[in-house]
Design the sequence.
């Protein structure tokens, strides 16, 4: 699933460019609206890259 305008993203540990995308939501302890984290999990070494919010350039939606 390569998007045209998405720069190549490589794992900083192993250089793999194959990631599983996950989204996680967690409610803040202080009662604000829930935060959305976009996670990219390296398929080779399982290193996890975190992106805050759902609107990064690697946005899924
Ligand atoms: Zn890796």
Sequence:
């Amino acid at each position: 699933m390569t998007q045209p305008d998405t720069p190549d993203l490589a794992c900083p540990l192993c250089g793999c460019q194959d990631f599983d995308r996950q989204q996680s939501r967690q409610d803040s302890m202080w009662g604000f609206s829930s935060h959305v984290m976009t996670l990219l999990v390296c398929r080779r070494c399982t290193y996890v890259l975190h992106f805050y919010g759902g609107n990064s350039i690697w946005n899924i939606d």
